[in-house]
Fold this sequence. Notes:
Strand order of the largest sheet: 3-2-1-6-5-4
Order of helices and strands: EHEEHHHEEEEHEEH
Shape: globular
Structural class: alpha+beta
Strand content: 25-35%
Mean pLDDT: 84
Number of helices: 6
Amino acid sequence: MYAPSFAAAATIPIRRIQTVSVHEGFVHRWTNRVAVRVTTAGGGAGQAGTAEREWVAPIIERRQLGALLGEFYPGLNFENLEWNRPHPRAFGRAARRMLMSSAPLVIAASFFIGWWCVPLGITLAAFAIVRARLRVKHLGWSLTPGGVVFRAGVLRRSTTAAFFEKVQCVESSESSFDRRTGMAVVTIDTAGTPSGTSMPYLPRDVAISLRDLIAERSARTAFTW
């Protein structure tokens, strides 16, 4: 039986690109490849303010990444960036959060398997601690001449650049847990992306300084739509 195949192509105006993200799964890292995705602001009739995410390169060799990023923004390159680390107590925060998320499963299992829930709890606790360690290890932020770059992820890692000329709003926020540990979150909103791009577990003074710096540089840059 003949099965038709379909191929699609799209044109993305560079001026509508709001953020650029590089994604790396386990297989990507093993084969020295990456995937590149952009977020664009809708530009069709009645679509202003909507967001679309497009895979511009579902898989490319890492050595080609610099040239591709340079097409989106001159000089943009994720290699050799100086990464700023999260708060020194970020691991403790992340570990407690993941341990608490595992607790309901262990409690529920205790009603069905009794004391066998103890080795299950130990296994889940060890997994949560390792995952928290890896998550904090790969958290970071860096400034470039044209914007700010955030990275995060454990098995699937992402590095996202937001450009100063596209920033509509930047804020620092603190939950009750953040206030207790002297931390804050910085979130950047661009056109059509109300959920924003955020960096958690920053020292409060660093978060405030980063927020003010992004706001200042964005104000000095002409907004482009």
